[in-house]
Amino acid sequence: MALSSRAHAFSVEALVGRSAKRKVPEGRDEEPGPGCRPARRAPEAEKRPKAGAESRAGGVQVELQGSELWRRFHDIGTEMIITKAGRRMFPSVRVKVKGLEPLQQYYIAIDVVPVDSKRYRYVYHSSQWMVAGNTDHSCITPRLYIHPDSPCSGETWMRQIISFDRVKLTNNEMDDKGHIILQSMHKYKPRVHVIAQDSRFDLAQIQSLPAEGVQTFSFQETEFTTVTAYQNQQITKLKIDRNPFAKGFRDPGRNRGVLDGLLETYPWRAPLALDFKAFGADSQG
């Protein structure tokens, strides 16, 4: 039976609909009535930048370059080789800086500090790192590596990608070549420092951070475990696949062919057969 417009205004359906749309105090979310579905909100993760890709401090913004590759390593468990002579990092730390004063002179530097006070070991049957005990890092002071282009104006730094691909990691505690000294089987993270030039001292001659004028940035995905040989085969494979200096490992057949070609350019001679009897030596059976 159809209701008149006046009767419909007092129907149960109309009254329920009104209660679902009642006003609420400002600042509180409106509670939907029975059977009402809350409006779908845009996921916050899509609005935010990817975690770790950027770091900010005091108006200065540092963006990690190659963050996707770093994340791929981090998801597996990044390992970095350290040697007595020093070994370069891969991936290397590369950043872009924004928000500097264009005319101000800055030093850009990097150091590597422990993530915790634990020593680790790799468990092969479960393919994961486990805590093996405690350690003391106080015997090694983090060494500061100053980018060779320092000092430069903020304008110059902001125009370029700042690469620390020349940084080398060593386990030689007596190193005198400026390499970063670390201990094997420990977890570390690189830190990037933006340091305003101060006429009171020459940063190029010091090995530790000044007490003021420093802004420090770090990225979770750049954390790594130090090793003298890769423990995780997935890390080995990813390094070979993505490191341009590991080309020889990716195509061994091609290199073997080049080597064979070089050998063919030399005249072949049969190996010499020495007769030891001429020297008075009897052969033994």
TrEMBL record:
The keyword Zinc does not apply. Pfam families: T-box. SUPFAM superfamilies: p53-like transcription factors. Residues 41-53 have a biased composition (Basic and acidic residues). One of its GO terms (cellular component) is nucleus. Residues 64-251 form the T-box domain. Keywords: DNA-binding, Nucleus, Transcription, Transcription regulation. GO terms for molecular function: DNA-binding transcription factor activity, RNA polymerase II-specific; RNA polymerase II cis-regulatory region sequence-specific DNA binding. One of its GO terms (biological process) is cell fate specification. Residues 18-60 are annotated as: Disordered. It is found in: Nucleus. This is TBX22 factor. It comes from Spizella passerina (Chipping sparrow).
